[in-house]
Protein backbone atom coordinates (compact mmCIF):
# COMPACT_ATOMS: atom_id res chain seq x y z
CA UNK A 1 0.00 0.00 0.00
CA UNK A 2 1.30 3.48 -0.88
CA UNK A 3 2.27 5.60 2.10
CA UNK A 4 2.52 8.86 0.16
CA UNK A 5 -0.39 11.27 0.36
CA UNK A 6 -0.45 11.81 -3.42
CA UNK A 7 -0.71 8.99 -5.97
CA UNK A 8 1.72 8.79 -8.89
CA UNK A 9 2.65 11.92 -10.82
CA UNK A 10 0.79 10.74 -13.91
CA UNK A 11 -2.40 9.97 -12.01
CA UNK A 12 -2.20 13.24 -10.08
CA UNK A 13 -2.00 15.31 -13.27
CA UNK A 14 -4.75 13.23 -14.88
CA UNK A 15 -7.20 13.78 -12.03
CA UNK A 16 -6.25 17.46 -11.64
CA UNK A 17 -6.77 18.08 -15.37
CA UNK A 18 -10.18 16.41 -15.32
CA UNK A 19 -11.20 18.43 -12.29
CA UNK A 20 -10.05 21.86 -13.43
CA UNK A 21 -11.64 21.52 -16.88
CA UNK A 22 -14.97 20.64 -15.30
CA UNK A 23 -14.71 23.53 -12.83
CA UNK A 24 -14.17 25.97 -15.69
CA UNK A 25 -16.94 24.43 -17.79
CA UNK A 26 -19.49 24.60 -14.97
CA UNK A 27 -18.41 28.12 -13.99
CA UNK A 28 -18.71 29.44 -17.55
CA UNK A 29 -22.14 27.84 -17.91
CA UNK A 30 -23.42 29.30 -14.64
CA UNK A 31 -22.02 32.78 -15.27
CA UNK A 32 -23.40 32.96 -18.82
CA UNK A 33 -26.88 31.87 -17.75
CA UNK A 34 -26.98 34.17 -14.72
CA UNK A 35 -25.55 37.09 -16.69
CA UNK A 36 -28.27 36.76 -19.33
CA UNK A 37 -30.97 36.62 -16.66
CA UNK A 38 -29.44 39.63 -14.91
CA UNK A 39 -29.35 41.63 -18.14
CA UNK A 40 -33.02 40.88 -18.74
CA UNK A 41 -33.82 42.66 -15.49
CA UNK A 42 -31.30 45.52 -15.72
CA UNK A 43 -31.09 46.32 -19.43
CA UNK A 44 -34.26 48.44 -19.32
CA UNK A 45 -32.86 50.60 -16.50
CA UNK A 46 -29.49 50.96 -18.23
CA UNK A 47 -30.98 51.97 -21.58
CA UNK A 48 -33.42 54.35 -19.88
CA UNK A 49 -30.52 56.67 -19.00
CA UNK A 50 -29.89 59.31 -21.64
CA UNK A 51 -27.10 58.44 -24.05
CA UNK A 52 -26.78 54.80 -23.02
CA UNK A 53 -26.61 52.06 -25.61
CA UNK A 54 -24.89 48.76 -26.35
CA UNK A 55 -21.57 50.02 -24.98
CA UNK A 56 -23.12 50.59 -21.56
CA UNK A 57 -24.65 47.11 -21.59
CA UNK A 58 -21.20 45.66 -22.19
CA UNK A 59 -19.82 47.89 -19.44
CA UNK A 60 -22.43 46.56 -17.04
CA UNK A 61 -21.62 42.98 -18.03
CA UNK A 62 -17.91 43.65 -17.49
CA UNK A 63 -18.58 44.94 -13.97
CA UNK A 64 -21.13 42.25 -13.07
CA UNK A 65 -19.29 39.17 -14.33
CA UNK A 66 -16.49 39.39 -11.69
CA UNK A 67 -19.17 39.46 -8.96
CA UNK A 68 -20.88 36.39 -10.42
CA UNK A 69 -17.56 34.54 -10.74
CA UNK A 70 -16.64 35.28 -7.13
CA UNK A 71 -20.05 34.25 -5.82
CA UNK A 72 -20.55 31.06 -7.80
CA UNK A 73 -17.01 29.69 -8.00
CA UNK A 74 -17.49 27.53 -4.87
CA UNK A 75 -20.75 26.18 -6.32
CA UNK A 76 -18.90 25.38 -9.53
CA UNK A 77 -16.24 23.48 -7.60
CA UNK A 78 -18.96 21.50 -5.80
CA UNK A 79 -20.78 20.57 -9.02
CA UNK A 80 -17.48 19.79 -10.76
CA UNK A 81 -16.55 17.52 -7.85
CA UNK A 82 -19.81 15.58 -8.18
CA UNK A 83 -19.46 15.29 -11.97
CA UNK A 84 -15.80 14.25 -11.87
CA UNK A 85 -16.10 11.68 -9.10
CA UNK A 86 -19.36 10.22 -10.35
CA UNK A 87 -17.83 9.77 -13.83
CA UNK A 88 -14.71 8.12 -12.41
CA UNK A 89 -16.90 5.81 -10.34
CA UNK A 90 -19.17 4.92 -13.22
CA UNK A 91 -16.18 4.06 -15.44
CA UNK A 92 -14.71 1.87 -12.67
CA UNK A 93 -11.61 4.07 -12.47
CA UNK A 94 -12.03 4.52 -8.72
CA UNK A 95 -12.19 0.74 -8.28
CA UNK A 96 -8.96 0.39 -10.29
CA UNK A 97 -7.22 3.00 -8.13
CA UNK A 98 -8.33 1.33 -4.91
CA UNK A 99 -7.30 -2.07 -6.27
CA UNK A 100 -3.83 -0.59 -6.84
CA UNK A 101 -3.66 0.15 -3.10
CA UNK A 102 -4.71 3.80 -3.03
CA UNK A 103 -6.78 4.98 -0.08
CA UNK A 104 -9.80 7.28 -0.42
CA UNK A 105 -7.67 10.21 0.75
CA UNK A 106 -5.06 9.49 -1.91
CA UNK A 107 -7.75 9.38 -4.59
CA UNK A 108 -9.00 12.78 -3.43
CA UNK A 109 -5.54 14.34 -2.95
CA UNK A 110 -5.18 15.70 -6.54
CA UNK A 111 -8.66 17.24 -6.30
CA UNK A 112 -7.88 18.82 -2.95
CA UNK A 113 -4.63 20.27 -4.33
CA UNK A 114 -6.46 21.67 -7.36
CA UNK A 115 -9.18 23.13 -5.13
CA UNK A 116 -6.51 24.75 -2.92
CA UNK A 117 -5.00 26.46 -5.99
CA UNK A 118 -8.49 27.56 -7.06
CA UNK A 119 -9.04 29.02 -3.58
CA UNK A 120 -5.78 30.98 -3.81
CA UNK A 121 -6.68 32.27 -7.27
CA UNK A 122 -10.16 33.18 -6.00
CA UNK A 123 -8.70 35.17 -3.11
CA UNK A 124 -6.39 37.16 -5.39
CA UNK A 125 -9.21 37.70 -7.91
CA UNK A 126 -11.53 38.99 -5.18
CA UNK A 127 -8.92 41.35 -3.76
CA UNK A 128 -7.68 42.78 -7.04
CA UNK A 129 -10.71 42.77 -9.35
CA UNK A 130 -14.02 42.07 -7.59
CA UNK A 131 -13.65 44.85 -5.01
CA UNK A 132 -12.96 47.47 -7.69
CA UNK A 133 -15.77 46.23 -9.92
CA UNK A 134 -18.19 46.29 -6.98
CA UNK A 135 -17.25 49.85 -5.99
CA UNK A 136 -17.65 51.11 -9.56
CA UNK A 137 -20.93 49.28 -10.16
CA UNK A 138 -22.45 50.51 -6.88
CA UNK A 139 -21.53 54.10 -7.73
CA UNK A 140 -22.92 53.72 -11.26
CA UNK A 141 -26.20 52.31 -9.97
CA UNK A 142 -26.41 55.14 -7.44
CA UNK A 143 -26.62 57.66 -10.32
CA UNK A 144 -29.21 55.50 -12.15
CA UNK A 145 -26.71 54.34 -14.78
CA UNK A 146 -25.75 57.86 -15.78
CA UNK A 147 -22.17 58.71 -16.76
CA UNK A 148 -19.84 56.00 -15.42
CA UNK A 149 -17.87 57.42 -12.47
CA UNK A 150 -14.18 57.70 -13.33
CA UNK A 151 -12.97 57.90 -9.74
CA UNK A 152 -12.22 54.42 -8.40
CA UNK A 153 -12.81 55.75 -4.90
CA UNK A 154 -16.46 56.54 -5.56
CA UNK A 155 -18.82 55.35 -2.82
CA UNK A 156 -22.58 55.10 -2.92
CA UNK A 157 -25.49 55.60 -0.51
CA UNK A 158 -23.64 57.76 2.04
CA UNK A 159 -25.54 58.37 5.31
CA UNK A 160 -24.48 61.17 7.69
CA UNK A 161 -25.81 62.65 10.92
CA UNK A 162 -25.58 66.38 11.59
CA UNK A 163 -26.73 66.50 15.21
CA UNK A 164 -30.43 65.65 14.99
CA UNK A 165 -30.51 66.21 11.23
CA UNK A 166 -29.74 63.69 8.48
CA UNK A 167 -27.78 64.13 5.27
CA UNK A 168 -27.87 61.54 2.46
CA UNK A 169 -25.88 61.36 -0.77
CA UNK A 170 -26.41 58.97 -3.67
CA UNK A 171 -22.67 58.92 -4.37
CA UNK A 172 -19.47 60.49 -3.12
CA UNK A 173 -16.12 60.91 -4.86
CA UNK A 174 -12.75 62.39 -4.00
CA UNK A 175 -11.03 62.59 -0.64
CA UNK A 176 -10.28 65.17 2.01
CA UNK A 177 -11.43 68.71 1.28
CA UNK A 178 -11.91 67.78 -2.39
CA UNK A 179 -14.83 65.47 -1.61
CA UNK A 180 -17.92 65.96 -3.75
CA UNK A 181 -21.40 64.52 -3.18
CA UNK A 182 -23.99 63.80 -5.85
CA UNK A 183 -27.74 63.48 -5.33
CA UNK A 184 -27.82 65.17 -1.90
CA UNK A 185 -30.85 65.21 0.42
CA UNK A 186 -30.81 67.02 3.77
CA UNK A 187 -33.54 66.37 6.33
CA UNK A 188 -33.96 69.06 8.98
CA UNK A 189 -35.66 67.76 12.13
CA UNK A 190 -37.09 69.44 15.21
CA UNK A 191 -36.33 68.56 18.84
CA UNK A 192 -38.87 65.72 18.76
CA UNK A 193 -37.23 64.09 15.76
CA UNK A 194 -39.95 65.05 13.28
CA UNK A 195 -38.83 66.11 9.81
CA UNK A 196 -39.80 69.73 9.23
CA UNK A 197 -37.89 70.48 6.04
CA UNK A 198 -36.38 68.53 3.16
CA UNK A 199 -33.63 70.13 1.07
CA UNK A 200 -32.44 68.61 -2.20
CA UNK A 201 -29.50 69.48 -4.44
CA UNK A 202 -27.71 67.82 -7.33
CA UNK A 203 -24.31 68.20 -5.67
CA UNK A 204 -22.52 69.38 -2.55
CA UNK A 205 -18.90 70.41 -1.95
CA UNK A 206 -16.96 70.98 1.26
CA UNK A 207 -17.10 74.67 2.29
CA UNK A 208 -14.80 74.38 5.35
CA UNK A 209 -16.83 74.43 7.50
CA UNK A 210 -20.04 72.91 6.24
CA UNK A 211 -21.18 71.70 2.85
CA UNK A 212 -22.30 74.00 0.08
CA UNK A 213 -25.40 72.95 -1.83
CA UNK A 214 -25.87 74.74 -5.16
CA UNK A 215 -29.29 75.26 -6.78
CA UNK A 216 -31.00 73.72 -3.76
CA UNK A 217 -34.75 73.15 -3.50
CA UNK A 218 -36.45 73.20 -0.08
CA UNK A 219 -39.72 71.53 0.81
CA UNK A 220 -41.52 72.69 3.97
CA UNK A 221 -43.31 69.68 5.42
CA UNK A 222 -45.75 71.63 7.60
CA UNK A 223 -46.72 74.15 4.94
CA UNK A 224 -46.38 71.61 2.09
CA UNK A 225 -44.72 74.27 -0.02
CA UNK A 226 -41.63 74.12 -2.24
CA UNK A 227 -39.22 76.99 -2.80
CA UNK A 228 -35.93 77.59 -4.58
CA UNK A 229 -33.30 77.95 -1.86
CA UNK A 230 -30.34 78.84 -4.09
CA UNK A 231 -26.95 78.21 -2.45
CA UNK A 232 -26.93 76.91 1.12
CA UNK A 233 -24.21 75.88 3.56
CA UNK A 234 -25.35 73.08 5.85
CA UNK A 235 -23.92 70.42 8.19
CA UNK A 236 -21.10 72.60 9.52
CA UNK A 237 -20.14 69.94 12.07
CA UNK A 238 -19.63 67.22 9.46
CA UNK A 239 -15.97 66.90 8.45
CA UNK A 240 -14.57 64.89 5.50
CA UNK A 241 -12.80 62.61 7.99
CA UNK A 242 -16.18 61.63 9.44
CA UNK A 243 -17.49 60.73 6.00
CA UNK A 244 -14.46 58.57 5.31
CA UNK A 245 -15.37 56.25 8.19
CA UNK A 246 -19.15 56.46 7.90
CA UNK A 247 -19.50 54.92 4.43
CA UNK A 248 -17.48 51.71 4.62
CA UNK A 249 -18.58 48.97 2.22
CA UNK A 250 -16.70 45.75 2.94
CA UNK A 251 -17.46 44.31 -0.50
CA UNK A 252 -15.73 47.19 -2.30
CA UNK A 253 -12.58 47.25 -0.14
CA UNK A 254 -9.69 44.81 -0.06
CA UNK A 255 -8.20 43.45 3.15
CA UNK A 256 -5.74 46.29 3.68
CA UNK A 257 -8.30 49.01 3.02
CA UNK A 258 -10.88 47.29 5.21
CA UNK A 259 -8.33 46.93 8.02
CA UNK A 260 -7.67 50.67 7.96
CA UNK A 261 -11.41 51.40 7.92
CA UNK A 262 -11.97 49.15 10.93
CA UNK A 263 -9.16 50.84 12.85
CA UNK A 264 -10.58 54.28 12.07
CA UNK A 265 -14.06 53.24 13.20
CA UNK A 266 -12.72 51.71 16.41
CA UNK A 267 -10.74 54.88 17.13
CA UNK A 268 -13.98 56.84 16.71
CA UNK A 269 -15.79 54.50 19.09
CA UNK A 270 -17.98 52.93 16.39
CA UNK A 271 -19.26 49.34 16.32
CA UNK A 272 -17.22 47.22 13.88
CA UNK A 273 -18.59 43.70 14.43
CA UNK A 274 -20.09 43.44 10.96
CA UNK A 275 -16.94 44.67 9.25
CA UNK A 276 -14.72 42.36 11.30
CA UNK A 277 -16.87 39.37 10.30
CA UNK A 278 -16.60 40.47 6.66
CA UNK A 279 -12.82 40.82 7.06
CA UNK A 280 -12.45 37.22 8.24
CA UNK A 281 -14.89 35.99 5.60
CA UNK A 282 -12.71 37.45 2.86
CA UNK A 283 -10.26 34.69 3.84
CA UNK A 284 -12.61 31.85 4.76
CA UNK A 285 -14.92 32.48 1.79
CA UNK A 286 -12.42 31.58 -0.97
CA UNK A 287 -11.25 28.60 1.09
CA UNK A 288 -14.73 27.08 0.78
CA UNK A 289 -13.67 25.87 -2.68
CA UNK A 290 -11.07 23.67 -0.97
CA UNK A 291 -13.82 22.10 1.13
CA UNK A 292 -16.01 21.00 -1.78
CA UNK A 293 -14.01 17.88 -2.87
CA UNK A 294 -14.23 16.57 0.68
CA UNK A 295 -17.99 17.13 0.92
CA UNK A 296 -18.63 15.68 -2.53
CA UNK A 297 -16.26 12.73 -2.06
CA UNK A 298 -19.08 10.35 -1.18
CA UNK A 299 -20.01 10.31 -4.89
CA UNK A 300 -16.67 8.67 -5.74
CA UNK A 301 -17.12 5.46 -3.81
CA UNK A 302 -19.55 2.59 -3.74
CA UNK A 303 -20.40 0.35 -6.67
CA UNK A 304 -22.01 2.23 -9.55
CA UNK A 305 -23.97 -0.83 -10.63
CA UNK A 306 -25.58 -1.08 -7.19
CA UNK A 307 -27.88 1.81 -8.12
CA UNK A 308 -26.60 3.99 -5.28
CA UNK A 309 -24.46 6.32 -7.39
CA UNK A 310 -27.29 8.83 -7.86
CA UNK A 311 -28.13 8.72 -4.17
CA UNK A 312 -24.49 9.29 -3.23
CA UNK A 313 -24.24 12.21 -5.66
CA UNK A 314 -27.36 13.78 -4.16
CA UNK A 315 -25.95 13.35 -0.64
CA UNK A 316 -22.68 15.02 -1.66
CA UNK A 317 -24.57 17.87 -3.28
CA UNK A 318 -26.77 18.24 -0.18
CA UNK A 319 -23.71 18.44 2.08
CA UNK A 320 -22.19 21.13 -0.14
CA UNK A 321 -25.30 23.28 -0.29
CA UNK A 322 -25.87 22.80 3.44
CA UNK A 323 -22.47 24.37 4.00
CA UNK A 324 -23.45 27.49 2.04
CA UNK A 325 -26.69 27.80 4.00
CA UNK A 326 -24.93 27.48 7.36
CA UNK A 327 -22.15 29.83 6.26
CA UNK A 328 -24.62 32.57 5.29
CA UNK A 329 -26.59 32.07 8.50
CA UNK A 330 -23.46 32.27 10.66
CA UNK A 331 -22.30 35.41 8.85
CA UNK A 332 -25.71 37.00 9.41
CA UNK A 333 -25.50 36.14 13.12
CA UNK A 334 -22.03 37.67 13.22
CA UNK A 335 -23.34 40.86 11.62
CA UNK A 336 -25.97 41.17 14.35
CA UNK A 337 -23.47 40.42 17.10
CA UNK A 338 -24.86 36.97 17.89
CA UNK A 339 -21.49 35.34 17.21
CA UNK A 340 -17.98 36.77 17.57
CA UNK A 341 -16.67 37.74 14.10
CA UNK A 342 -13.98 35.06 14.10
CA UNK A 343 -16.47 32.31 14.98
CA UNK A 344 -19.02 33.56 12.45
CA UNK A 345 -16.50 33.37 9.61
CA UNK A 346 -14.65 30.15 10.47
CA UNK A 347 -17.05 27.91 12.41
CA UNK A 348 -19.00 26.66 9.31
CA UNK A 349 -15.76 25.86 7.49
CA UNK A 350 -14.30 23.87 10.38
CA UNK A 351 -17.63 22.17 11.14
CA UNK A 352 -18.15 20.90 7.59
CA UNK A 353 -14.50 19.93 7.25
CA UNK A 354 -15.07 17.60 10.21
CA UNK A 355 -18.39 16.40 8.76
CA UNK A 356 -16.82 15.64 5.37
CA UNK A 357 -13.85 13.87 6.93
CA UNK A 358 -16.12 11.84 9.21
CA UNK A 359 -18.34 10.73 6.31
CA UNK A 360 -15.29 9.77 4.27
CA UNK A 361 -13.61 7.80 7.05
CA UNK A 362 -16.78 6.05 8.20
CA UNK A 363 -17.78 4.94 4.71
CA UNK A 364 -14.46 4.26 2.95
CA UNK A 365 -11.47 4.18 5.26
Automatic annotation (TrEMBL):
Main location, first listed in the record: membrane
Keyword Cell membrane attached: yes
Classification via Pfam families: LptF_LptG (PF03739)
Keyword Transmembrane helix found: yes
Transmembrane segments: 12-37, 68-86, 107-125, 309-326, 338-361
A Gene Ontology term for the protein's cellular component: ATP-binding cassette (ABC) transporter complex
Keywords, comma-separated and alphabetical: Cell membrane, Membrane, Transmembrane, Transmembrane helix
Annotated compartments: Cell membrane
Biological processes, Gene Ontology terms: lipopolysaccharide transport; transmembrane transport
Membrane topology field: Multi-pass membrane protein
InterPro entries, sorted: LptG (IPR030923), LptG/LptF_permease (IPR005495)
Protein name per its UniProtKB record: Lipopolysaccharide export system permease protein
Originating organism: Novosphingobium marinum
Native organism taxonomy: Bacteria, Pseudomonadati, Pseudomonadota, Alphaproteobacteria, Sphingomonadales
Amino acid sequence: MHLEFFPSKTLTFYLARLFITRILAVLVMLVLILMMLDLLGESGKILAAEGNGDAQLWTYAGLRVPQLVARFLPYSVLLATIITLATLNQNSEVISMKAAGLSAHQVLAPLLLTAALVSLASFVFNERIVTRATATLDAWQAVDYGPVPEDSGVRSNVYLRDGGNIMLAASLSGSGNAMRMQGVTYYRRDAGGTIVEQIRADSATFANPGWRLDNATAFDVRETTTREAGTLVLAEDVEPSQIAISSVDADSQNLMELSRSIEALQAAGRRTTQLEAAWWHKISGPLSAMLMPLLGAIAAFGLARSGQLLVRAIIGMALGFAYFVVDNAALAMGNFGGYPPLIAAWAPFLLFALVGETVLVRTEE
